[in-house]
Amino acid sequence: MVERISRPLGDDLRSNIVLTLALALAYPLVYYLSPGLGLVMGYGMTWVSALLGFNLLFGYGGLLSFGHALFLGLGAYTAGFLYKYLGINNIELHILGSVLSSLGIAALIGPLVVRYTKIFFAILMLAIAQVFWSLYYKFFWITGGTDGIKLPRFTIMGIPLEGLDFATYHHIYFYYVTALTLLLTYFMWRLVNSPFGLALRATRDNEVRSRFIGIDVYKMRLYAFVISAVYAGITGALAVNHQRLVTPDIAYWTTSGKVVFATLIGGSKLFIGPVIGSFVFHLVESFAMRFIYWQLIMGALVIIIIMFVPGGITQILKTPFFGARLTRRAGG
Amino acid sequence: MEVLKLVELKKYFGGVRALDGVSLTLEEGESVMLIGPNGAGKTTLVNAVSGYLRVDGGKIIFMNQDLTDTKPTERVRKGIVRSFQLANNFDKLTVYENILVAVMAKKQQHLKFTKVVDNYKEEFEEAEQVLNLFDLGDKAHEYITNISYGDRKLLDAAIAFTLGPKLIMLDEPTSGVATSEKDAVMKKITDAIQRTKVASIIIEHDMDIVFRYGKRVVVLHQGKIIADGTVEQIRRDEEVRRLLLGGIYA
C-alpha cells in the first residue's frame, strides 16, 4: 500500500499554530522589555493575513502580484471612510467592510487580470493599484489626501477602549489580531490542502496539462485571486487601526513591494514561510529605519536572500537536520 | 458503436496543409496506431481532436455529438483524453499528487475546499490503484524531477487513464525513452488499454513497436491518410515501405 500525503515541517497545520501561539506567549515579555519591539510584533501579526493571501496566488497559484497594495489600500480606506462618514470605529465592522470592498473590487477586476500571467499579470496589478493610489491622493476632499484620515481607538463589539493606558490597549490589539490570524491561518491552510489547493498548484506547474485533465484554469485563478484580495483587505483594515491613521502610503506601490519582499524573506515554498517573513521583515525594517539609507539595507537583504537562500528563511526547515526528524516522525 | 468520427478534417498553417481532409472512424474499444514521416500531421491530428488546436474545416463527431467547436476541458469531460509527446506532468507535485489531481478533476471536485485532501479516502484508493497498475507505487512520493524520463512518460499516460476516458490519444508514449525501457512502457500501456476497453489512438515512430503492438495501423502523409489497415497489410504496402521503412524492413 502506498503511503499517503506527508507534509514537511512548516507545511503542517500544527507548526503554524504553535508558531503563532509562541509569539502570542512571548508578546507581553517583549513589550515589557521594549514597547517599540512590541509594536513591531504587532505589525508582524497584522501583516500575516495579507502575506498568506499573497502567497496563495504566488506560491500556490504561480501568479506574482505586484499590486497587492490595491487591496491593503481598499481595506484601509474602507475602515477610514466608515469612521469619517459614518462615525463607525467598531473594528468588526471595519473588517467586515474591508472584506466586502476587497471582494467586490477583486471580483470586478479579477476576470480581466487573471487572464494574464507572469510579467503581464504583475504589471497589470501594479498599474491598477497605482490608479487607486492616485484616487486616494488626488481626491483629498474625500480622502483627506496626504493628511489622511485620523482614527480614534477602535471598539471591540461596541466596547470602547478609550481611557485605557497604552500598554493595555496594545495588548488588546495584539491578541485580537492574533485570534483573527489563527482563524485566517486555519482557513487558508484548509484551502491550500483541499482539492482546490491541489488543483491550483497543478495550474501553477502546468497550465496546458491542467486544461487537458479538465480543470478550468481561469476559474481556479479567479477564485484564488478573490480570496487573496480579501486576506489583504483584512490586513489593510487592521493596519490602520494599529497606526490609527489612513494615508495613501498604504496603497502605494512600495507597499506592494513590501508584500513581495516579506514573502521572499520568509520563503514561498512552505505554508509557514510568509508568516515568518512577516515578523522578520518588520523586525529588519524597524532596525534599518534607524539609518538614513534603510532602503539600502532592505535591498541588500533581499539580494542576499535571492542569491544564497532562494527558498527564504524557511529553506532551513528542509535541511537534513529537520528532514531527518520528519522522517522519523512519519515512520513512527 | 462509433466512438469517434472525423469528417474531412482540415488544418492549415499558412501554406502548410497539416491536415488536408482527414476522415477516420474509430469503433468502441478499437486501437489505432498512427504512423507517418516527420511533419505528416500526426500530432496535429491529436491536437485537433483534443481541442488544443481549432480546425479550419471538417467535423469532429464523438459519441454522436459534434464537438468541433468545444473547449478542451469540455472534451475531457466527455471522454476525450490525451498525453503529450514531451512528458507533460505537474513538476512540483509528487507522482502521487499528479494522479490524485487527475482523480479530483475527473470527479469535478477540484473546486471544493471544505475538506482537506487527506479526507478523500475513495480518491486516494483510486490514485493508489492507478499507481500500482503502472508500477509507479514505489515512486509515489518522489517529485517529478527525481524520476526517470521513461517514468515521466508513463506517468503522463497514467494521468490520461486516470480520467476514465472513452477515447485516449497518446502522442509517442515511448519517444525519448531509453530503448531498454520502451517495451516495458508500451506493455503497461497496452495492458491498460485492454483492461479498460478504451478506444485509442497511439502515435508511434518506432516501427518495431508498431509491428509488435499494433493491430489497426493508419498511415498519414502530408496531411492525408494514405493507408489504413491491419499491421500485416501495412507491412506489405509498397508505398508505406518506401516512405517509412526506407529499405530496412524491405
Characterize this entry briefly.
Chain A is mainly alpha-helical. Chain A has 14 helices and four strands.
Folded structure, characterized:
The complex is a heterodimer of chains A (332) and B (250). Chain A has 332 residues and is mainly alpha-helical. Chain A has helices at 13-33, 35-60, 69-86, 91-113, 118-138, 140-143, 166-192, 195-205, 207-211, 217-243, 253-266, 273-288, 294-308, 320-331; strands spanning 149-150, 155-156, 159-160, 245-246. In chain A, the strands form 2 sheets. Chain A has a two-stranded antiparallel ribbon with strand order 1-4. A two-stranded antiparallel ribbon of chain A has the order 2-3. In chain A, helix 2 runs parallel beside helix 7. The two termini of chain A are 17 Å apart. By secondary structure, chain B is of the alpha/beta class. Helices cover 38% and strands 25% of the residues of chain B. In chain B, the strands form 2 sheets. A 6-stranded mixed beta sheet of chain B has the order 6-7-8-3-9-10, with helices on both faces. Chain B has a 4-stranded antiparallel beta sheet with strand order 2-1-4-5, covered by helices on one side. In chain B, strand 7 (167-171), helix 6 and strand 8 (199-203) form a beta-alpha-beta unit. In chain B, helix 3 (95-106) packs parallel to helix 5 and helix 5 packs parallel to helix 6 (179-196). Chain B is globular and about 55 Å long. The mean pLDDT of chain B is 89. The chains are: A mainly alpha (332), B alpha/beta (250). The A-B interface holds A 1-6, 190-191, 193-199, 201-202, 204-206, 208-216, 219-220, 223 and B 50, 52, 72-73, 76-77, 81-82, 84, 88-93, 96-97, 100-102, 104-106, 108-118, 120, 124, 127-128, 131-132, 137, 140-141, 159, 163.
Q: Helix/strand-derived class of chain B? A: alpha/beta
Q: What is the CA–CA distance across the termini of chain B? A: 37 Å
Radius of gyration of chain B over alpha carbons? 18 Å
**Overall mean confidence score, pLDDT of chain A:** 89
Largest sheet of chain A: 2 strands, antiparallel
Kindly report the spatial arrangement of strands forming the biggest sheet of chain A: 1-4
CA-based shape of chain A = globular
The main sheet of chain B orders its strands as 6-7-8-3-9-10
Strand count, sense and barrel status of the largest sheet of chain B are: 6 strands, mixed
